[in-house]
Amino acid sequence: MTEAAEIEKKMYLPEIVAFHRQDVERRKAEADFAALELAASAHEPRGFARALREKAKTGPAVIAEIKKASPSKGLIRENLDPTALAIELEAAGAAVLSVLTDEPYFQGSLGNLRAARAACKLPLLRKDFMVDPFQVLEARANGADAILLIVAALNDIELRTLREEARRYGLDVLCEVHDAEEVERARALDCECVGVNTRDLKTFHVSLDRAIELSQSLPADVIRVAESGITGREDVQRMRAAGFGAFLIGESLMRAERPGEALKALLS
Ligand SMILES: O=P(O)(O)OC[C@@H](O)[C@@H](O)c1c[nH]c2ccccc12
After folding, report:
1. Of ligand 1's atoms, which has the minimum distance to the CA of residue 253?
2. How far, CA to CA in Å, does 185 sit from each of 62, 139, 175, 260?
3. Mind listing the pLDDT tens digit for each residue in 146-201?
4. 0.90 exceeded by the pTM?
5. 127 is catalytic
6. Nearest CA to ligand 1 atom 16
7. What CATH number has the domain bearing residue 47?
8. Number of domains into which the chain is organized
């Protein structure tokens, strides 16, 4: 079997989502809801979409992602220090940050989210597989300003429920799509940001061209985010010319010895 066929057979997304559906039940059973609500109301959301929109007026708005590992790439950055990274990426000109909080597949944590929040003033995206409204409360309680909704992972009722919950908690939504049908399903949700993932989460195949094609059909009034596989200034410039205002960049920053310098080079 070819490597691509091997990966395709594994179908990571359904496996990851199934894990989170179970895990969230366990966490809910153990949760102190009063304490979470208190922590959530103590966090004043920093305005994720607003920061992206502002930055996109004058140049590429980068969502710099703090990510230690991934199912497709394995370990990306050993000894990942969310505090140092948040400081460095803020100084280098990131518009906002994305922090992986999935533990088993991306080696992230809610602790990393809290550390990033304490270390910088940038708005933060909780990057995880949201399947239950409980995770929205958890997101705000741990300092997130936005959540990710992956259209491929959820049915329309779940999407609507999670979107409403985000609104209730004052969090913005980055809605992730990767084909025309998903764009249509996303339209009804009226999210602040729509991200086209150039990486198909079922096969891990990356295609910037396909994302560029899809950018034409995105709703006009949203912040258009190009996600994944962006490695250089040329990629950013090409995607920007195609109508993307914001860029979600993880691996190419996390592999750099000095992620701040790598970000500055991307923005130069
Ligand atoms: O590391 P990259 O190729 O620059 O990609 C970042 C981001 O787009 C990617 O991590 C991502 C996009 N959608 C996701 C959903 C879940 C977890 C991770 C992701």
Report:
1. 4
2. 25, 24, 10, 36
3. 999 999 999 999 999 999 999 999 999 999 999 999 999 999 999 999 999 998 87
4. yes
5. yes
6. 128
7. 3.20.20.70
8. 1
